[in-house]
Amino acid sequence: MSRFSVAILGASGLVGQRLQELLYDHPFFEVVAIAGSPTNVGLMHEEIEWRLDSRKPKYDILVCSMSDIPDVDIAFSALPNNVAEVVEPSLVARGIHVFSNASAFRRIAGIPLVIPEVNPEDMKSYDGHACATNCTVVPVVTPMIGMKSLGIKSVTIRTRQALSGAGWKLLFDAEALSGNVNPFIPQEEEKLIAELKYLLGIDVPVIASCNRVSERDGHFVSVGVELSRETTVEEVEELMKIPTLGLPSSPKLVNEIIDDSPTRQEYLWNGRGMTTTVGNIRVEGNIVRYDALSHNTVRGAAGGVILLAEFAVQESYITK
Question: Which of 135, 273, 301 is nearest to 212 (CA)?
């Protein structure tokens, strides 16, 4: 299969740079353009300040403006909402497939919001524009989706979200890194609740408390699920073993189950950052509780949207 030509929208942000990292030498996709803000337009890729801890990939590419994006097959967007609202529809109108991390188009009719292992059927409405989910919903829903068969009655969520979820600036903020960070995340609870209901395909009561913490990467969640009937730890663990897709970005395990609560030090990069680690699973009658961790800029952002595009290719939503 010849590779699909790709433009990355976002040169210097964390998710844009994760896309650059993960798409380098990809078997399905070939990066031919990187679009950036006016600050970076006209720079060679090697001149852009690299904000990730990983090694910078080598692209012999001149950063272009949003108005000069060439005619590629696919655009991966890591744009802020105000820019995405203008740029993404214009690319779709040109016949370019757009896979977006921007929240502006999530839950908009005709633009599917999909985690391929969770709600692949929603891609049936795909018409050239699709979105990855909020980064925090991933460790909540991938362990939970199998419990739909037991009847989900209500959900409670408490999150401890890393600094990188707010962008690169907090990662260079000495006060935030030392522990002096505002825990409040505007509109995060509303987004998490709405997207969880969308992905589950059910409207049940959900209570969420979202908090920023002084960790560089990784979103940790503590979840409680009220079911329609009693269950056991053994049954819940089996339901959490959802199948992987065997795509280039797929981890061997979508959810890895461990005994204790997962720590960032040990499990942040589980499955190359694409596996959700689930632990401390408890069951009392019809109440299930678990803790989970996933990498917010990989599985929850760049890696997730790349996996979605791979799935679109596999299922022939995108063809040459």
Answer: 135
